[in-house]
Specification:
Structural class: alpha/beta
Number of domains: 3
Mean pLDDT: 84
Number of helices: 11
GO molecular function, one term: sequence-specific DNA binding
Radius of gyration: 24 Å
Protein name: HTH-type transcriptional activator CmpR
Family: Belongs to the LysR transcriptional regulatory family.
Keywords: DNA-binding, Transcription, Transcription regulation
Pfam families: HTH_1 (PF00126), LysR_substrate (PF03466)
CATH superfamily of the largest domain: Periplasmic binding protein-like II
Shape: elongated
Length: 295
């Protein structure tokens, strides 16, 4: 099977526009010509790539499989074009970073400002979720995750570890007994569907008849509750020092030992097909510098 880049560009245009008519307008092609070229591509692939509907098109399973490779080819074609046009050029384009909510909020969002100051043609897309996105399917360009990848197609670019510590507001701390223990605190935790996450499970194991005082499926809501004095949160100690939580969020660290296993790790992960793209390399370098500051 010999797939041509010109045909894959048409495939991407139809997917991005959501219809043959929209793609034809974007490409300045006649719709019959575009339909014929897509049909020829589907014949070369041996399967239908789109499901035609009255309101547009949707990718078939075969189309979903082809999409990441076509997107990568588009990225490389764009980089090649830029290099031909300019002997010296600044990387440009969109880089999507998947990150846990806390890291997205405390690290990635402020980092975007630093990147944009030096490289204004880089657009940062932050995909903040508890779930780990699939880099192989092109769901993101980079991933910050708490588990080291085992997939041979993924590259672990950098990593940082931190003790997990207990944080409360100053107002809440003022009303605690001297030398409080875990059971003396009102805990802020993850709500369903994330109530089985590690932090919830370890608190449940350490505190008899454990019941959270406050739970939310949103990290920002949890942090707001902690700032308001509702209770305590378990957070990576590096974020306390990195983001200045004591000043910015009026939180302070309690002297409570969570045990020798209370350590969190964060891994910077990239798919090997994106590893050498200049725009992705640039963002990886910025994140690695942030990791160095967190150590």
């Amino acid at each position: 099977m010999n797939l041509r880049w010109d045909d894959l560009k048409l495939f991407l245009a139809v997917h991005e526009q959501g219809s043959l008519s929209g793609a034809a307008r974007e490409l300045k092609l006649g719709q019959p010509t575009l339909s014929r070229r897509i049909a020829e591509l589907e014949e070369a692939v041996g399967e239908a790539l789109f499901v035609r509907q009255s309101q547009g098109v949707l990718l078939t399973a075969a189309g979903q499989k082809l999409l990441p490779a076509a997107q990568s080819m588009a990225e490389w074609a764009n980089e090649a074009e830029l290099r031909v046009k300019k002997q010296t050029y600044l990387p440009e384009g969109k880089v999507r970073i998947a990150a846990p909510p806390g890291i997205a909020y405390e690290v990635v969002a402020p980092l975007a400002a630093k990147i944009r100051q030096q490289y204004p043609k880089i657009q940062i897309g932050v995909l903040s979720a508890v779930e780990v996105l699939n880099l192989g399917r092109g769901e993101a360009d980079l991933s910050l995750r708490s588990e080291k990848p085992t997939d041979s197609d993924l590259v672990c670019v950098d990593e940082v570890s931190s003790p997990m510590r207990v944080f409360v507001s100053k107002m809440y701390a003022a009303n605690l007994p001297p030398h409080p223990g875990l059971a003396d605190l009102d805990w802020i935790c993850w709500a369903a569907p994330y109530d089985e996450l590690r932090s919830n499970q370890e608190l449940s194991a350490a505190i008899p008849n454990f019941k959270p005082a406050f739970a939310s499926d949103d990290y920002i809501v949890q942090l707001a509750a902690c700032k308001a004095g509702v209770g305590a949160m378990v957070l990576p100690q590096v974020l306390h020092h990195y983001a200045g939580l004591n000043e910015l969020h009026k939180l302070q660290e309690l002297d409570i030992d969570l045990g020798p296993n209370a350590t969190g790790s964060l891994y910077l992960v990239c798919h090997k097909r994106h590893h050498r793209l200049p725009k992705v390399q640039l963002v990886m370098d910025f994140i690695s510098k942030e990791f160095a500051g967190l150590r």
